[in-house]
User: Fold this.
Amino acid sequence: MGVEAVVSPGQTAKILVVDDERSMREMLEILLRREGHDVRVAENGTRALALLKAQPFDMLISDIKMPDMSGVDVLRAAKTINEQIIGIMITAYGSKESIQEVLRLGAADYLDKPFNVDELRFRVRKELERHKLQQENSLLRRALRDNHGFENIIGRSPAMLAVFQLIETIAPTASTVLITGESGTGKELVARAIHFNSPRKERPFVAVNCGALPEALLESELFGHVRGAFTGADANKKGLVEVAEKGTIFLDEIGEMSPPMQVKLLRVLQERKFRRVGGTEETEADIRIIAATNRDLARLVSDGQFREDLYYRVNVIPVHIPSLRERQDDVPLLAEHFAAKYSGQLGKTITGITPEAMQYLQAYSWPGNIRELENAMERAVALERTPFISAESLPDRVRNGDAANGRPAPSSRPEEFPVDGFDLERHVRDLEREYIAEALRRAGGVKVKAADLLGMSFRSLRYYMKKYRL
Assistant:
């Protein structure tokens, strides 16, 4: 049974080999290392369990018959630690019952001793590829089912044509991109267009909202964790950085990231390595990072809220998405697009928009940008009883709003200044609390929607809700 020096064209993995025969362990270790895999070996089940608890493995290759613990027991224990681990069993004394048991426990395959090394290579490659496809399939299917090309970003204004040209230029590169723009301008659409027009398009695009998750949960989501890292961590878990391997990770609302998380992200950008929460092993990160924010990061840097070194690492290629009020020429095109979209989804027959309704749409300044326009058109399609969107079907704020800023003037503006003066800070606090409470009511308690209505981040809204005990 010879061992050839063959470099596998497939993916690499972290593999644990368990066998009480020293010669078999050494042969498998040499063979798998030459395939490019990171290999650890154990001479018995006890040592194997210690290694499984200490670090994550993608695959377990184990002999079934061993003195202290059978390979079946090792596989059973491995599955409780990491249910995603791939198990390949090897035996010279395989009975029908033992084979059935390992397959029932979730072993991917088994081999009888003596076996051909080429057969083992094939089985390992096949199972790693199958596992990879299972992990990525739903994500890729969902992403590729939608249209993520330029045609999914609606616009023909000079400002948007400049964005299209920039996307086309930077998509083939591996450079980090920072997308800026107000909430609702379509920053994630631009990030997806960059990814799906890049050499990484066949790999995952993974999006995470940095402002919607508490710091501890965000760290676990991004980097994963090992079993026992914290209460409830019953098994090893891959983070989104690992899921996005050789693909793109989109960090939305990066300006909301806490200082400790900024340090951890900086290391990923600098070293292209990370550690799972509670783990000691470093893992390589072959990913492209696209970040987005609706905040002024340069100002956050000067205020000491965002690390200057991270800012320069993230802001390699800046892409600014103009607000809808800066591209009013695109409003008719977008309105017609959304009218057609929701006409089909809601089973309505809408063939156009009346001139009066279009005038209102173009006069309004859309503080919520494209997201607000889309919601308004969905509502209009749902309410409209004729083949044309009429002004009456548009939201009141669009027909009655202040065209200068898209929002009605605050009704609480004083007509007269009190003769004896007043407590301005208390008055402002009261107004602040009332507006936040009203936004929550209008959003039906959905905090993300309420934050959009108020033009603030999700994290800021949570702060004020706690402050005012809402």
